[in-house]
Here is the input.
Amino acid sequence: MLPEIGYFLLIVAAVCAFTMAAPVFFASQNSKIPSTLWKPSLIVVFLCITISLVVLGWAFITNDFSVAYVANHSNTRLDTFYKIAAIWGSHEGSLLFWVWTIAAWTVLFAVLVKDEELFHGRTLAVMIATIGLFGLFLIFTSNPFERFLPLVPPEGKDLNPILQDIGLILHPPMLFMGYSGLALCFAISVASLVSGSLSKYSIRVLSVTSILAWVFLTAGNILGSWWAYNELGWGGWWFWDPVENSSFIPWLFVTAQLHALILTRHNAKLTRSVVLLCLLGFAVCLLGTFIVRSGVIQSVHAFASDPNRGTMLLIVSLLLVLPAFGLYMFRAHKMTGSRDLTTLDELSLAFAVILLSVSAISVLFGTLYPLVYDAFGAGVLSVGAPYFNSIFAPMAVFAAVLIGLTQLKDTNIFCWLASFLISSVLCVYFGFFTECKDALYTTAGVFACSWILSSFVSKFLCKGTHRNWFALIAHLGLAISIAGVVGDTQYQSEALTRLGPGLGRPLGDYIFVYEETKKVDEPSFFADEAQIRVLDKDEKPLLLLQPQRQTFRSNGMQMTSAGISHGLFRDLYVSLGNQLSAEEYLVRINIKPLVSWIWIGGIIMMLSAVFSTVWRRNKQKEEKNE
Here is the structure.
C-alpha cells in the first residue's frame, strides 16, 4: 500500500506544480495571484515529493521486492547505507531525488528571498514548472513505484557492484544539488528577462546561488574523479567519458558565470552574458541528463538505455529551454550595463569568461560529435583523450597567464620579474632536465602552476593591495590541481607483470613482493586478496597492499578493488587482474606522483567560497562605516 501512496503523492505534486506555474508566472504587477498561489502550491509540492522519496527509501530498507526498482537494485545482503544510496543509484530513483533537490532549492529561495514580489513569484513559477514537467515525466515513463505483482521475487538482483562504494553515497547528491542550483539560476534569469532588467537585488541573489551551485558541482566532480580512481581499478582519475563530461561542462559554464557576475556587480557590460550563461548552464545539465539516461552512449556511468524514455526526456528539456532562449532573443537587448570595460581587471575577467565558455563548448563538441556522426549514418567515431588534452593544455596555460597578470597588477616590478624568472626556470628544468613523458606538456603545465603560485605569493606579500580572497584561494587551488595533473600524467611509473607467491617486481624506488593469496568472504561477495609487501631500495618493509579480485554472489560479476597507499607526494597503486595459473595473477603496479594534489586543489577551490563570504561581509562593513 505504501508504494501506491508514494506514487499518488507524486501525481499530486506534479499536477499541482504544473497547473499553478502559469498563473503565477503571468500575473501582473498589482495582482495578488503570486502570493496567494505559490505558497500553498509549493508547500503541497515539497511535502508530497519528500514523502514519496521517504516511501521509496523505506521500500529499500524493508526489502520490499514487490517494487520493481527495489528488486532490480537491491537485495537482502546489501548494507543499509548502500540501500539508502540505491535510491539514486539508477534512473527512476535518481530522477525522483533530483526533483526533490529542485523542490528543496525552491523552498529555500521562497523562505530566504522575500523582496521584489513579482520577480520572486516569477522565479518560483519557473522552478515549479520545472518540477511539474519532470514529475509528469516520472509518472508516465519512469515510475519508481512500479510493482512486480503478483509474482514477487524472493530476492533482489543487487545493486551494481561498481556502485557499492562510498562514492555513490556522496557523489550523485552533490551533483544533483549543483544541477538544482543551476535550475534556480535559470529561473532567476528567465524572471529577469520578463522584467527586462537584471536588478542589483537579483544580481545579489544570483551571485549567492551561483556560488553555492559552483561549490556543489565542484564537490561532485572531485568526488566523481576520486571515486573512479579508487573503485574502477584502472589507475586513472578522469577518462573524458561522455557521462563525466556531462557534469564537467556545467561546471565550466557556472565558473564563467561567476566571473561575469563580478563584472556585472560593477555595472560593466556583461549583463546579457550573465543571463545567457545561466540559460546555457541549465541547458547543458538537461543535455547531460539526456546523455546519461537515453542510451545514446554506452558507459559504466550511464543510468538507463531506453530510447523511448530518452525521446520523452528530450521533449521535456526542449519545453523548458526553447521558450527561455526565445525570450532571450526578444528581450536581451533591454539588458545592458552602464559603462564599457576599461580597467585591466575588467578586461581580464571578460577574457576569462570567454576562455571558460570556449573550453565548455570545446568539451561539448567533443562529446556530441561522435553521436551526431553516428546519427547521420556516417559510421562509428571515437573522440578520446588526445582531443580533449590538446584543447585543455593551451587553455590551462592561457588561464594561468591571465590569472598571474591579474594577481600581479598592483605589485612592483620586482614581483613581476621574480614571478616570471621562477616560473621560467622551473618549467625549463622540469621540461628538459627530468624524465618526463612529454616535454611540451610538462613545460606548459609547470609554467602554468608555478606562474599562478609565484604571483599568488607576490600578491600576498605586497602590502596595501586590494585582495579578493575568493579569487586568490580559488586560483591557488587550481594551481595545485594542475601540479597534480602534471605529476601524475608526466611522471607516473607503471608495470604490468605476472606475480604469484614469492615473486617480486622492482619499480622506481620500491620493490613489490607478492607474499600470498588470501580468501575473503563477505556477505555480498567473495574475493581473492593478494598480500603485496612494499619494500624500499634496501629491502626494508614499508607497507602492505591488499588488492582484491571480487566475485559478487548475486550476479557472478567480477570486480577489481585496488590496493592503494595514499601519500602527499605519491600514491602506490596496485590492482589485481585475471588469474593466469593456480597461484599467479596479472598485476598492474603504478607509482603516481602528486596525484592527491588534484583533489587537494579541488578542496581548496571549494573552501574559497568560505573566504568569499567572509570577504564580502568585511567589505559590506567597511562600506557602512564609510
